[in-house]
């Protein structure tokens, strides 16, 4: 992955002579808010890559900006304000990683199940990876290639692979390969040597190469015409709403996987996935409604399940679809209404 820094944002919000910076150093909170506004989204995405959770990213960014506000007098302008804010945000995330550990997907916990597990209960003692709304990627560089790179850096497979790295390796990889920091700059961020940074980078790249596919979703989606992409997303939604197992199976690869954090069980292969789909979501759960959305730079479907007591379809899961060619190779259903608000989605549908 290449550098995705926004030089326009640098020019707009940095420099020792920036009037807002001068005012902010003098204690003007409104000026500080204006100063960091162009950078909030990219800083939030960075925190998500580091932490694997939108909610943790919210907390980290809030804490980082508070730290930056309190320490603004120490910013001397020798680096860009953007770089300094990334330093503060990265250190904040490293503190959180040290306290909370890494986030997981069901595939990290054990082997797949051959048949549907009825009554699968959520595991509440696991810190689960969460989805990231594509709206958080808006407002980035104008160059389409840069937007693709930004989306690659939040793809599920990449963020999941990052979770297998210690915090220092995770930070080094993101700062160098995604954001374009030099080894010397990263060493200053992490209070270590450039040699240690280069060593951390080498180890991190090895793990990510083993855990993440060589072909990114952005490469796949660029080769897929819009008509086929709509057919896949609409076909998935329609099959779920109609209980159509044949329609669903027609969309899947032979080695498809389906996981549902916070449920521990997951399924691999067409037979196992079809058995799960037929026995649970397509028949046992009841009436579904769905809304197309985007998560982690990938197509996604927000699913709502009918609740007769509430008289409505209630938010149930954000289903992130990983494609290979024109078919679905992975379905990751992030179960829980707490995932819907960051996507700007309602808590219920009629």
Automatic annotation (TrEMBL):
Chain intervals for the UniProt region annotation (Disordered): 1-21
Span of domain RNA polymerase sigma factor 70 region 4 type: 157-206
Annotated ranges, domain SnoaL-like: 233-331
A Pfam family matched in the record: Sigma70_r2
Alphabetical GO biological process terms: DNA-templated transcription initiation
Domain of life: Bacteria
Residue intervals of the RNA polymerase sigma-70 region domain: 35-102
Complexes and interactors: Interacts transiently with the RNA polymerase catalytic core formed by RpoA, RpoB, RpoC and RpoZ (2 alpha, 1 beta, 1 beta' and 1 omega subunit) to form the RNA polymerase holoenzyme that can initiate transcription.
Family membership noted in the UniProt record: Belongs to the sigma-70 factor family. ECF subfamily.
Protein name (database record): RNA polymerase sigma-70 factor (ECF subfamily)
Gene source species: Planomonospora venezuelensis
């Amino acid at each position: 992955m290449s550098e995705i820094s926004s030089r326009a944002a640098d020019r707009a919000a940095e420099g020792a002579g920036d009037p807002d910076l001068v005012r902010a150093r003098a204690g003007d909170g409104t000026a500080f808010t204006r100063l960091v506004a162009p950078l909030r989204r990219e800083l939030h995405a960075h925190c998500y890559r580091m932490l694997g959770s939108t909610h943790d990213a919210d907390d980290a960014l809030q804490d980082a900006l508070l730290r930056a506000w309190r320490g603004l007098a120490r910013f001397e302008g020798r680096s860009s304000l953007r770089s300094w804010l990334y330093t503060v945000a990265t250190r904040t995330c490293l503190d959180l990683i040290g306290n909370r550990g890494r986030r997981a997907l069901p595939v990290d916990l054990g082997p797949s199940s051959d048949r549907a597990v009825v009554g699968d209960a959520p595991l509440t003692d696991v810190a689960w990876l969460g989805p990231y709304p594509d709206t958080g990627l808006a407002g980035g560089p104008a160059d389409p290639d840069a937007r693709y790179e930004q989306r690659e850096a939040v793809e599920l497979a990449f963020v999941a692979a990052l979770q297998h790295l210690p915090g220092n390796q995770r930070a080094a990889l993101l700062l160098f390969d995604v954001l374009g920091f030099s080894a010397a700059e990263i060493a200053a961020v992490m209070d270590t040597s450039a040699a240690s940074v280069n060593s951390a980078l080498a180890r991190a790249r090895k793990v990510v190469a083993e855990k993440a596919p060589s072909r990114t979703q952005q490469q796949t989606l660029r080769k897929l015409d819009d008509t086929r992409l709509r057919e896949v997303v609409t076909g998935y939604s329609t099959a779920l709403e109609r209980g159509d197992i044949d329609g669903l199976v027609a969309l899947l690869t032979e080695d498809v996987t389906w996981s549902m954090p916070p449920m521990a069980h997951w399924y691999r292969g067409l037979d196992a996935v079809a058995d799960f789909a037929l026995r649970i979501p397509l028949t046992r759960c009841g009436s579904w409604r769905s809304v197309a959305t985007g998560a982690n730079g990938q197509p996604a479907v927000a699913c709502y399940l009918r609740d007769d007591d509430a008289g409505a379809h209630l938010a149930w899961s954000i289903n992130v679809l990983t494609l290979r060619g024109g078919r679905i190779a992975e379905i990751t259903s992030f179960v829980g209404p707490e995932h819907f608000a960051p996507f700007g989605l309602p808590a219920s549908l009629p």
